[in-house]
Amino acid sequence: MKLVFDGSKLVLQEGSSGEYKVKACGICGTDIAILKGSYKPRKTPIVLGHEFCVEKDGKLFVSEINLVDWSCENCKKGEYTHCENRKAIGIDVDGALQDRIDLPSYLLHEVPDGLSAAEAALAEPVASVLRMLQLLDPKPYESALILGDGALGLISCALLKRFGLDVSVKGKHEQRLKRARLFGARVESENRKYDIVVEATGKGTLDEALSHTKARGRIAIKSTHGSSVCFDYTKAVVNEVQIVPSRCAPFYLWDKALKLVKELRLGELVMVYPFRNYEEAISNTLERKIVKPVLVF
Ligand SMILES: [Zn+2]
């Protein structure tokens, strides 16, 4: 059984094979951008899904998403997530919205006891936020504003609090803001300025981020929504604001991500759906009724 994106819609088809059984697969903003047509996958038809947990011989594993050649200039430098010939699972090649999949062992990280497959599927977005923190280098005495109260925004909230920062969040959904408060964040209701702004709205609202950033502050950009963004370039230059993009985490952040899912109880962000109820999961996501849908087999 596999869920195929044919270029315009999702179609459920029979037939899936591979060494690993997929146990759970999350749906993320990139998947939604592909379904909406703003982010073009490298091939269609394609099986989406890159936040997932698999099982083999009774053990659960999560998987990095970059298939790489280990021989290009970036790989030789150790920057293998930027491999010149990389193929991302669920974006460039078939992903995990199917019941079986083949994976090279270099991508896999074993899931520790105490995490369900659906919770473990959060490792990918949590690892990508750890990558953001690695490049952003936040200091405990700094203030941070998260723009957006979706999964990336709330995970950023929880992790920046863990780093000891004074964290605020700006969003539109009362239930999600309540969750941010439980993570220890404040809700931004004025127009204060911050040392760090995390742009996690899924829309790339850089002007709004700039309006909240102190001179010489940093803006972390995370959304891969696929559309071009205009912003006040001069304001960024005059205020010497740094824009810090980040994408996938390298291997050494993944075990930490799994531990943080457990310690910070990030599994509470997940809403689990049986695989066949994918339409309900996607429509509830589009209507912002849930934070992180995860389909289970
Ligand atoms: Zn390479």
Compose a concise summary of this entry:
By secondary structure, the protein is an alpha/beta fold. The protein has helices at 29-36, 73-76, 117-120, 123-136, 151-162, 174-182, 206-211, 233-238, 254-263, 278-286; strands at residues 2-5, 10-13, 20-26, 46-47, 51-56, 59-63, 66-67, 87-88, 100-101, 108-110, 143-147, 166-170, 186-187, 194-199, 213-221, 242-245, 270-274, 292-296. Bound molecules: zinc ion.
Task: Sum up the structure in keywords.
single chain; 297 residues; alpha/beta; Quinone Oxidoreductase, Chain A, domain 1; Rossmann fold; 2 domains; seven-stranded mixed β-sheet; 10 helices; 28% helix; binds zinc ion
Description:
The structure is a single chain. The protein is an alpha/beta fold. It folds into 2 domains: 2-123 and 249-296, Quinone Oxidoreductase, Chain A, domain 1, CATH 3.90.180; 126-245, NAD(P)-binding Rossmann-like Domain (Rossmann fold, 3-Layer(aba) Sandwich). The chain is 28% helix and 26% strand. The strands form 4 sheets. Strands 3, 5, 6, 9, 10, 17 and 18 form a 7-stranded mixed beta sheet that branches. The chain is globular, with a radius of gyration of 19 Å. Bound molecules: zinc ion.
